TrEMBL record:
Residues 3-160 form the Glycosyltransferase 2-like domain. Pfam families: Glycos_transf_2. One of its GO terms (molecular function) is glycosyltransferase activity. It comes from the Bacteria. Its EC number is 2.4.-.-. It comes from Luteolibacter rhizosphaerae. Belongs to the glycosyltransferase 2 family. Keywords: Glycosyltransferase, Transferase. This is Glycosyltransferase.
């Protein structure tokens, strides 16, 4: 069975539209889990009223996307997790069936990265393309990747659990990057599938500016500390910190930048206690993927 996990925060109408698409899926056994992250609107009541088949959970306090997705994964009964962010729609009524078939066709694959298009159904959602190969050459191709977007994806539940699921210390931003690395480090594979399409309506999260000026510079440091061996961590983090500082100076966000640095310093001792650098072989696989090579 497939478990569809949808995190929700203050996006009632968007989630309602997504749920209608999900419940229109055909020819496959699935359940739907919505985890609400303490929305201040009437989202939960609306979901329960219109979609009695959905399993609705509400966080006791706002925990962010990583916490919310992880709760959905823990509550799931299926052996395949399909995750959708609240601002997507699903035009293909057999999308979940395609997911199940793809896992059957590729038993060695742990995760599927969906193709994200803009609402017109034709244009690529380029801001969400963090794959190691160029979008203009690979968007319509199947390839092994070191990345997936939390906007729309599918994983074997067992692989997510063994990888530690989403790193909750990051709260939001870069949590998919670290999880993808952990999947690869455990010997898993992630396959980009151009026929698995979700339309991304790109509603701005309530704290989008906070992502840019705070979470991004902070989490780049935390990601490097958590995943990369000594010198590689410095090579990754140092130029990014410099770039983010210059960007903050130009944008008038210097105070936010230093707030991010203080937060990173505060969290580093906790993170270092569970630090697990990627294996050398994993780093080599990630480099190979930049050339579109199979793992």
């Amino acid at each position: 069975m497939i478990s569809v996990v949808i995190p929700s925060y203050n996006r009632r109408d968007c989630v309602v539209a997504l749920l209608r698409d999900v419940f229109a899926q055909q020819a496959v056994d699935f359940e739907v889990i919505v985890v609400d992250d303490c929305s201040p609107d009437d989202s939960v009541e609306a979901f329960r009223r219109e979609f009695p088949r959905a399993r609705i959970f509400v966080n006791e306090k706002n925990g962010g996307p990583a916490v919310t997705r992880n709760r959905g994964i823990r509550e799931a009964k299926g052996d395949i997790i399909v995750g959708f962010d609240s601002d997507v729609t699903i035009p293909d009524v057999r999308l979940l069936l395609k997911v199940a078939n793809r896992f059957n066709e590729h038993p060695q694959v742990d995760g599927l990265a969906f193709r994200l298009l803009k609402p017109d159904g034709k244009s690529e959602d380029s801001p969400r393309w963090w794959h190691p190969v160029p979008i203009d050459k690979y968007a319509d191709k199947q390839f092994y990747t070191s990345y997936f977007s939390g906007t729309a994806y599918a994983f074997r539940r067992e692989a997510l659990v063994e990888a530690g699921m989403y790193p909750e210390i990051l709260y939001m931003h870069y949590e998919e990057v670290e999880l993808a690395y952990r999947i690869l480090d455990g010997g898993g594979e992630i396959l980009h599938c151009p026929d698995l399409v979700a339309l991304h309506h790109a509603n701005e999260v309530s704290r989008r500016s906070e992502v840019t000026v705070f979470y991004k510079p902070r989490n780049q440091i935390l990601l490097a500390a958590a995943c990369l061996p000594g010198f590689a961590a410095v090579q990754y983090a140092a130029p990014r910190v410099v770039y983010q500082f210059v960007k903050a100076c130009r944008g008038g966000h210097v105070k936010d930048f230093f707030r991010a640095m203080r937060s990173a310093r505060t969290l580093l001792p906790t993170l270092m206690r569970s630090r697990k650098p990627l294996k050398y072989e994993t780093l080599q696989r990630i480099v190979a993927m930049k050339h579109g090579l199979a793992p």
